[in-house]
Amino acid sequence: MHKSLDQALSYSNRWLDLIKNPVVNEEQGKQIIEESTSNFAEHFNRGWLDYRKSVTEAGDWAATEWTGAGAVFRDVLGREYIDCLGGYGMMDLGWGHPDVIAAVKAQLGRTPMPSQELIDPLRGVLARLMAEITPGDIKYSFFCASGTEAIEGALKLAKMYTRRSGFIVAVKAFHGKTMGSLSMIGKADFRQPAGLLYGGPVYHVPYGDAGAVEKQLDICQKVGVDIAAVLMEPIQGEAGAIVPPDDFWPRLREVTRAYGVLLIADEVQTGLGRTGKLWAVDHWNVAPDILTVAKSLGGGVMPVGAFCSTEEIWQVMMYPNPFIHTSTTGGGGLACSAAIAAINVTLRDRLWEVAAAKGAYLIPKLNALAAQYPQIYHGVTGKGLLIGQHFNDAKIGYKVAAGLFKRGVLVAGTLTSAHTIRIEPPLVITYEQIDAVLDRLADTLAEIKRGM
Ligand SMILES: Cc1ncc(COP(=O)(O)O)c(C=O)c1O
């Protein structure tokens, strides 16, 4: 039985009017906040709301985001925030980049989605662009809508190509929350509640320790466990911007070759410039066998993900069954036009160099604050604009996030704890905005110290 079709129709009508005419006064703004809060609590996820509220509540009214441009967004009451969360790496180009919006709008007017049966040009254009900008011999791509789907595809490809089923992954890794990706992540808090996951062997080894990977490969070989691939983030994102030692990726490449297993680089968060190189593996001149990307590939406008590999490995995607891996909605016209524009802007504005320069400006200043407040900070890590501030405990981290939010700066937490807080702004953040963040952080830290 349907509950209330008439009500659903009139409610959606009211909101379609608001979507089309988004100008609201203060009274309406407050009503939208109340309504959105209640909708989240009653129909989306009350726990999520409770968790967020303690950091984001400002004054009497919780913040409900409404518009944004560049590295700044406004809530429905018009209050302004500098975005240092950047959609967890999805907003490299900032909020609603005009060039991406223009491409998507134009494509929207022509055809938003392909027939599925014929050849649609944009999917091919995007695949060719990916072949041109990815490292090594990577030549083929498959498009989906999220990072976790990209990982699922990469795992399946590695299994199909090698005809093996084991994976070696890292402690504290994050690769997504669907069954395959979930099996690979390094946080039991997320894996265990779902019970039995991927059926094949998965080994978690310490991140940044190529010797541990080699040892695991050796053990597996000796006991006859077949490993398909080693899957790692080039720089761990959700774990808190953890940069591995410089020899880690070159050695991973060597040992995976030596043992005949594939190397998968998960560039979902690091890809397209965030860490100061176009791909984070470029820091060490390593070409993986399979690369995954998502988040900023859609330019912060459309959901787009991809897994990409070499012609040799891609054979199993093409023959004998070219439909072995498909997605009805993945790689549609809107997604591809957004990704083509995102790649264009990234290359035109050389955004990886922008990220490197801004990181080189910001990180030493954060280090100076960390040195000034040893009772608060454990340290600062990161590369480019993927930066982790590590605090002495999670309570302090929480206070820093709340203090910053009160001052109009949104920062990114990590997997489950405020022990580490990421600064991951759009790469288009201005130096003026970076200075404002630093000033507000200095104020917040002084306030926390006074209260200690
Ligand atoms: C490295 C990495 N891989 C995969 C994912 C999953 O991406 P998505 O949230 O789009 O499924 C994430 C998300 O944070 C990520 O950081």
Characterization of the model:
- The chain has 452 residues and is α/β, with parallel strands linked by helices.
- It has two domains: 23-95 and 351-450, Alpha-Beta Complex (Aspartate Aminotransferase, domain 1), CATH 3.90.1150; 98-348, Aspartate Aminotransferase, domain 2, CATH 3.40.640.
- It has 16 helices and 16 strands.
- The chain has helices at residues 5-20, 26-44, 46-56, 86-89, 98-110, 121-133, 147-162, 179-184, 188-191, 210-223, 248-259, 311-318, 333-348, 351-372, 394-406, 431-450, and strands at residues 57-58, 61-62, 65-69, 72-75, 80-84, 138-144, 166-170, 202-205, 227-232, 262-266, 290-293, 305-310, 377-383, 386-391, 409-411, 420-423.
- Strands 6-12-11-10-9-7-8 form a seven-stranded mixed beta sheet, sandwiched between helices. It has a four-stranded mixed beta sheet with strand order 3-4-5-15. A three-stranded antiparallel beta sheet has the order 13-14-16.
- α10 (210-223) runs parallel beside α11.
- It is globular and about 65 Å long.
- The chain starts with a helix and ends with a helix.
- The mean pLDDT is 95.
- The site of pyridoxal-5'-phosphate has 15 residues, from α7.
- The site of pyridoxal-5'-phosphate (PLP) has 15 residues, from α7.
Summarize this entry quickly.
By secondary structure, the chain is of the alpha/beta class.
- Report on the biggest sheet: 7 strands, mixed
- Class derived from helix and strand content: alpha/beta
**How much β-strand is present in the residues?**
15-25%
Strand order of the largest sheet: 6-12-11-10-9-7-8
Mean pLDDT, as a whole number?
A: 95
Count every helix, treating DSSP H or I runs of 4 or more residues as helices: 16
Instruction: Assign the CATH superfamily of the largest domain.
Output: Type I PLP-dependent aspartate aminotransferase-like (Major domain)
**Low-confidence parts lasting 5 or more residues at pLDDT below 50?**
none
